[in-house]
Amino acid sequence: MANWVRFNHEKNCHFGNQNGDVIELYTGDMFSNPSKTSTTINVSEVEFLNPCVPSKMIALWNNYKTLAEEKGLSKPNNPLYLNKAVSAIIEPGQNIERPKFYDEAIFYEGELGIVIGSECKNIERDSSKDYILGYTCINDVTAMDLVKKDPTFDQWTRSKSFDTFGIFGPTIVTDIDPMNLRITSKLNGEVVQDYNTSDMFFNVFEIVSFLSKDMTLFPGDIIACGTNSGLGPMNEGDAIQVSVEGIGALTNKLV
């Protein structure tokens, strides 16, 4: 199992495998036979970055049974998704900023993220695992009141693509079972989401296979698997922490 991180150290960008308070430095390409060096760096000496730089960030909608039941929705015929602008992505710990013109509800959505490891197109479910590098935490922030603002068109992409609304990391963990992971979100320390990936309509391998038949997926691309019951609004000054079992936690504040 690897725990991949990217970071700045002495004004240079590096990546490596974090083991507790120590990072084992690697060289080359994280996605293609990276080489381990003899150098180790303490986490206190680095500035963490997002663990990869995706070419796209895809977000699923209505992919959990419990939330679907609450909303009166049925299982879709296939995964439903939207693209979230990569310009929305922020680095670990940075603030979520309210858009200047928007004074309505901004929601947190704690989710599991898939990180693509190899370029793939038109792959089948049974081979999807071979194209996944690992998994990460996601907070799929949404300006929820914009979604239905225009009665003729649901504005999901717009509502999720404001600057600072794309949050993932802090690591990419390989070789874990994505079918049974606990996800929790804490708002100002209080648990507001607590669910398991076993509640998905479409599991990670089905998702990757389906998306690969619509578009080419590239190394580093991020797929947010959808959220579950307990998503809700944040107020200015609130801190939201999203944790995924075996991966870690993201913490950001709305300003």
Structure description:
This protein has 255 residues and is mostly beta strands. It has two domains: 3-48, Roll (SH3 type barrels), CATH 2.30.30; 50-253, Fumarylacetoacetase-like, C-terminal domain (Fumarylacetoacetate hydrolase, domain 2, Alpha-Beta Complex), CATH 3.90.850.10. Helix content is 8%, strand content 42%. The protein contains three helices and 18 strands. The protein has helices spanning 65-71, 156-160, 204-212; strands at 3-9, 12-19, 22-29, 32-42, 47-49, 57-61, 80-84, 106-108, 110-116, 132-140, 142-143, 166-173, 182-187, 190-196, 222-224, 232-234, 239-244, 248-253. The strands form three sheets. Strands 1, 2, 3, 4, 5, 6, 7, 9, 10, 12 and 15 form an eleven-stranded mixed beta sheet that branches. The longest helix is centred in the last third of the chain and has 9 residues, at 204-212. The chain is globular. The model has no long low-confidence stretch (mean pLDDT 97).
Hey, roughly how much beta strand do the residues contain?
35-45%
- Helical proportion, percent range: under 10%
The ordered H/E elements are EEEEEEHEEEEEHEEEHEEEE
The CATH superfamily of the largest domain is identified as Fumarylacetoacetase-like, C-terminal domain
Strand count, sense and closure of the main sheet? 11 strands, mixed
Kindly provide the radius of gyration, computed on alpha-carbon positions and rounded to a whole number of angstroms. Answer: 18 Å
Structural class: mainly beta
**Separation of termini?**
36 Å
CATH architecture label name of the largest domain: Alpha-Beta Complex
Number of helices: 3
By CATH, the topology of the largest domain is Fumarylacetoacetate hydrolase, domain 2
How would you sum up the global shape? globular
Number of strands: 18
Number of domains: 2
Low-confidence stretches: none
CATH class of the largest domain: Alpha Beta
Estimate the mean pLDDT confidence: 97
